[in-house]
Amino acid sequence: MEIRLGTTIQDLIQQGNTLLEELSELREYLESKNLERTVECRVFQNNVKSELKSLGKLASADPTAERTIHTLRSSNLPFFAAIWSTAKSCTGLVSFNTRFYWDSQQPKPSSDAAAEGAKQAGKSKQRSAIVDIVAQNGLQWVKVSTVSESRLLFELAKAGWECADSSDENEGDEPGPSSEDDDELSLIKLAQTITRAARATRIRYRHPEVCFVLPKVRHGVVSEIDRILGDIRATGASVQCAQEISKAPMLDEEVKKRLTVDEHAHFSETLNIDCTILLALVSDLSHGEIPKDRAFHRHTLRQIETEAKERLLPGCLWPALGSHAMVCTAEAARRMREIVDLIGTEHERMRTALIMGDYPERSREELVTLFGEITVYDVPRNWNLPIRVVDGKLDEAAVKALPKSCATVEENLTSINRSVFVYGWATGLTTISSNKTVAKLIETLVEKHRRGENERGPEIWICNTARSLIGKEINRR
Q1: Judging by beta carbons within 10 Å of its beta carbon (0-12, 13-18, 19+), is residue 268 exposed, middle or buried?
Q2: What is the pTM of this model?
Q3: Distance between CA atoms of residues 447 and 436, nearest Å
């Protein structure tokens, strides 16, 4: 008995240490790609550390003592290990242990899956559900339960349901809410609350899909268990049982890459470029050309500081644009040129000419080479210059194909924003912009005025860093 318990304690400690090592390894990988903010795992890491601390106190304790045995059997480390094993089989990992809320209002629109649960933290926890893993860039919610078949059958019997005997061990079950005061099983209640929260949340206009992972439960063996699984599926959740769960993969480079959120996965083949991005592409602030003998406005100083840390083009925009063809509406191009002509520096004007098609006789390769001569950064050779200017006016058929909510959206946008965002909406193009305010307004209006579950707004990718032209501040002084 002593050897078995002692070995189990050491095994759990080793399991926890391995888990923490792999989480740290993933963190380092994300930092190397400048993507550490895309995955929120601090709470999960701290929970694992807390469990390890408790187990560490037992290393020299009497393994036969009742307190030692109770602490060992109630440890959450096997549950955390099951979560991590499941997470390593996911794609586009976003967060762990995230709380999502619901209320009587319309579903909350969001493009940021990682922040969606956290921003409502002040609300009542009674109208919420905790999701163990948020994956697929926010569109998959996974609940892992280490409950055993015997525990489920026990709950069935306690609730007065007829059930068969089972000899499965009950040790190591995931601690969960008691169903003592309710005939509904705890697992079914979890499915009901999580799917309810999913119906109250939209990520890029879509409800997340809920998946239950049950590594200790088999389907097709006990009819009463199958009944429970059917009730979970009836909530709208999918279920993975022991038979469908493969061995957790090693955390190699391929797995790390798969876990990394691909913000560009949903991009259209051709990208619609907003005026804010056109200006960011040509601004001296984005190309390391900062006059040292000039004083700047505090907003410009903030942009300079941000550029020194994050490098907008090589760190954000060029990876997003890739080799995609690019277009912009005539109104966006006209507004951008007005600003550049008015306050642009010589190099900002030169960059504008190169990206906006002022040299039709030049090949893409030549344009990229010339652009590289007026930036401190290495320009990607696959950058698909120039940006093609399109009229942006929609024909009658395109207007009719838009959702009814579009009319309300148009009423609340300026002329240039209508030109950019509605064009992208009508043509199905991803719009690249740094105008977070307008993007959020559009999402909110679409959700408020939607006429059907499948109605979606424009696909917008937001660059979190904006850029002004450096000439604006120079000419003011």
Answers
A1: middle
A2: 0.81
A3: 17
d(CA 352, CA 277): 12
User: Token pair of 407, please?
Assistant: 């009319």
pLDDT digits (tens, 9 = 90+) for 4-48: 444 477 888 899 999 999 999 999 999 988 788 889 999 999 999
pLDDT digits over 449-466, tens only?
A: 998 888 999 999 999 888
Alpha helices in 283-388 (DSSP H): 298-310, 312, 318-321, 330-343, 346-355, 364-372
Length of the chain: 477
What are the residues facing 430 on neighbouring strands?
A: 271
**How far, CA to CA in Å, does 35 sit from each of 255, 262, 341, 372?**
15, 10, 36, 26
**Torsions phi, psi for 202 (to 5 deg):** -130, 135
CB atoms within 10 A of CB 199: 16
- Quickly count: other Cβ atoms within 10 Å of residue 360's Cβ: 6
**From CA 110, how far away is CA 424, in angstroms rounded?**
19
The helix (H) or strand (E) run that includes residue 51 is helix 42-56
Residue whose tokens read 């209640």: 189
- Tell which phi-psi region holds residue 284, choosing left (phi > 0), alpha (psi between -120 and 50) or beta: alpha
For residue 117, with 0-12 CB atoms within 10 Å meaning exposed, 13-18 middle and 19 or more buried, which class applies?
Answer: buried
As given in the structure block, the two tokens for residue 389 are 């200017």
**Is beta strand 128-135 parallel, antiparallel or unpaired with respect to 95-101?**
antiparallel
User: pLDDT, tens digit, for every residue of 86-143?
Assistant: 999 999 999 999 999 987 454 455 555 555 555 555 455 678 999 999 999 999 999 9
- Cβ atoms of 97 and 144 within 8 Å: the answer is no
The contacts of residue 9 (CB under 8 Å, 6+ apart) are 55, 58, 59, 63, 72
DSSP 155-203: HHHHTT----------TTPPP----TT-SS-HHHHHHHHHHHHHHTEEE
